[in-house]
Structure formats: C-alpha cells, structure tokens
Amino acid sequence: MDIRRQTWGALPDGREVSLFTLTNGRGMRASIADYGATLVELTAPDRRGAMADVILGYDTLEEYRTDPNYFGVTVGRVSNRVSNSRFELDGTVHKVTPNEGENQVHGGPGGFHSRLWDASVGSGPDSASLVLRYHSPDGEEGYPGDLDAEVTYTLADRGLVMEFKAVTDKPTLVSLTNHAYFNLSGNLEESVLDHVLTLNASRYLPTDDALIPTGEIADVAGSPMDFTRPKAVGLDVDAPHEAIAMGQGYDHYFVLDGAPGEMKTAAQLFHGGSGRVLEVRTTQPGVQFYSGNGLPERLSGKLGALYGHRHGLCLEAHGYVDAPNQPGFPAITLRPGETYQHVTEYRFSTT
Q1: 3-state DSSP assignment of residue 100
Q2: Would you tell me how many other CB atoms lie within 10 Å of the CB of residue 308?
Q3: In degrees rounded to 5, what are phi and psi of residue 349?
Q4: Is the Cα torsion angle 76, 30, 54, 254 positive or negative in sign?
Q5: Region 214-239: what's the mean pLDDT?
C-alpha cells in the first residue's frame, strides 16, 4: 500500500492545492484532491486484469473550480435539495443560499465542494488512508453552528471506503455524500445506458418538476423505477412515466430495504464488455440514482476525452432529500454532543 502527494495548483488567494494518490496491492489507484475533498481518479481492473479509470472528471484544478456537475466532490452541508432554500429547526427559520432557482442544491454555491480541506495521510500493511477535515463556520451558506467535518478515504484490497463524520456546537443539518460519476467501461466517451443496475430498494421518492420530493414514498413495483432485479440503465430511461418525465430520466432518491444504519449493499452496477462490477455498500438510508441526464455533449474531460449525455451515472448515498421540510421523512438534524457518522464503500470485482 502506498500514498503519494503532489502539488496540483493554487487557489486565487495563493493557497496550495494538493493531489494525493493511494495505491493498493492490486494496483488500483484512487487520487483525491484536498480541494472539495474530491475523488479525481479511481481505477479498477477488467476481467483480463487491465486497469482503467472508471469515474468522470478533469485533468486540472481550474476545471474543478468551475465545474457545474460536481464531479467526484464531497457534498455538504446538505446533499441534494432544500426546498425554497429554507428550513425550520427548533422553532427558528433558517434561510440558506439558493443556487437552483428558489431551491438550494448540494450545500449551495459555497458548499463543501468548493472549499480547501486540511489533509493528513496514513498507511498500513493492508490499506492506505487520507483524512480530510473542514471547519464550516456558523452561518456558512445559511446553516447554523460551527461544524467540523471529516472524510476518510481508505483504499482497501477490494476498493474504496469512505467514512464521513461531523460534530457541531449548535443544532444544524448534515447530510454528506460523494458525487462520483461512474462509467465502468473504462472508455469515458461511451454512454452508460448499457450498464446493468440493481438497487436494493423497493421504494422511491416521487418529486415535482424541480426535483423536490412530494412527501410520498412510493413503491417501485410495476413501474420503470423498479431496479430490484438487474436491468439495463437505458431500458426505461425515457419511458412515458411521470417520475421519469420529472427527472428527464433517472434523478431520484431510492429508499433502501433493510434496517437503517446497518451496512448493506445499496446497488450493484455491471458492465458486460469489461466484466467490471461495482457494489455500493452504505450505512445510509438511501441513494440518489442519477443517470447523467444533464451532462452536455462534447464536454472536455480527462486526457482529451469528450463526455456527453449520460456518459456517467451517480449513486449518491445520503439522507432523505429535503428532510427538514418533509415531516414524514427521517431527520438529518445533528445536535451538540452527537457525532454524525456514516460509511460508504465502492467495492469492485469482475465476472
């Protein structure tokens, strides 16, 4: 196991940004920048043992600084959407910074994805780890409380493990996630519509056309939202169904089956041409499956690759969407003396 650091650039205020590359005994690599706690590269072998990068992204820091797609970043304080950019907590209404119409998405324009994190490294005989910490001051993007967040990336033998933690000095909201876009083919210029997906989720959250949940928790059975058995991503991605129309494809939160808080398989993604299999395991209650509907055509990516519509998909493990404004959803409130903590793993194999 090995971990190496290199200077990757500098922010406009002169602060240096570093890129850390973790390598395991199988030759897999995970490269992570301290800017945005961003997963920049993740390699995995195909059925013949050939390694390839399986996530979308860019070559330079500047591209990440101006990226509207959240490629590989750590999202916070709150993943996904907060309706009307407001919430009430303990009788006080808090207004957060909008950045998608009237709503806030992924923590706002100055969310955790746009911040420089403090990094420390460690390695052992069986793994290499990078610990990233960020202090979010009281009032940042409208959220109450001084929050100390931590993400630990560990490249183990079977893949990448991410442990998220946070503590606060005032009641606040926290729902962190990684926002990687996967393409298991290893050719990031290909569509992911031929990937076969299974979700351990018999329910999902219907939304309005702004992708704000309606408050209903609906069954997937008998609808294009059903991935409880393996199904090609492209089979129903444009089906004449209300949920699909709202998301212009898949952009929905799927509620995982099983007990909340337990480590479980949330999703399995398979690419037949390469034989690569991704298993997403998490302690979170659900995942947002996004089929890359908003990716523009001929978007310049890594090593000159041109990305396009649905060339990558996201499986974002986090708390219920718009939880503070939906009384029927589990809360994402963090209080002083508590520790927010969850684990998500990207585990790779071949078939």
Answers
A1: strand
A2: 18
A3: -150, -175
A4: negative
A5: 98
The pLDDT of residue 174 is 98
Chain position carrying tokens 């706690």: 37
Residues, the chain, total?
351
80 a known binding residue?
Answer: yes
Q: Which letter, b or e, does each residue of 89-121 get, where b requires 16 or more Cβ atoms within 10 Å of its Cβ?
A: beeeebebbbbeeebbbbbbeebbbbbbbebee
181 is in an annotated binding site: yes
Helix, strand, coil fractions of the chain, as percent rounded to 5: 5, 45, 50
In Å, what is the CA distance from 287 to each residue of 175, 194, 268, 347? 12, 20, 12, 16
- Per-residue pLDDT tens for 137-158? 999 999 999 999 999 999 999 9
Distance in angstroms (rounded) separating the CA atoms of residues 54 and 313: 11
pLDDT tens track for 103-124: 999 999 999 999 999 999 976 6
Tokens of 66: 């101006």
The annotation status of 232 as a binding-site residue, yes or no, is no
Cα gap 137→174, rounded to integer Å:
14
Where b means 16+ CB within 10 Å and e means fewer, 161-173 reads: bbbbbbbbeeebb
180 annotated to bind ligand:
yes
Tell me: pLDDT of 349 over 90: yes
CA distance 260 to 70: 27
Report the C-alpha gap between 148 and 339 in whole angstroms.
10
Which candidate, 129, 146, 149, places its Cα nearest to that of 30?
129
187 annotated ligand-binding residue: no
Check: CB of residue 75 under 8 Å from CB of residue 111.
Answer: yes
Neighbouring CB atoms inside 10 A of 260's CB total 12
- Give the C-alpha distances (Å, rounded to integers) separating 2 from 7, 49, 126, 349: 17, 20, 10, 21
Q: What's the topology of domain 2-350?
A: Beta-galactosidase; Chain A, domain 5 (2.70.98)
Catalytic residues: 179, 316
